[in-house]
Design brief:
With 71 residues, the protein is mainly alpha-helical. The protein contains four helices and no strands. The radius of gyration is 15 Å and the shape is elongated.
């Protein structure tokens, strides 16, 4: 929510908070997949706190598996 406030202030999105939140949620659902976690784990990419708890289990499971594979 702090990020939403900061972005809303910077981009004058105060009137579109709901639409912005829907876009963030859609982006998180697209990003926080097991497959993407696996890919980023193989690349050893930094991913700290990228996914909310409700989406993170599969993503971080894939990430951990990717870390065990050759880069």
């Amino acid at each position: 929510k702090d990020a939403l406030k900061a972005c809303a202030t910077r981009a004058d999105l105060a009137e579109n908070k709901e639409l912005y939140a829907l876009g963030v949620g859609a982006g998180q659902r697209a990003f926080c997949t097991r497959e993407n976690g696996l890919k980023l784990g193989r690349k050893r990419a930094p991913v700290k706190d990228r996914c909310p708890p409700e989406l993170g289990a599969d993503f971080y499971s894939g990430f951990e598996e990717g870390l065990k594979q050759p880069a």
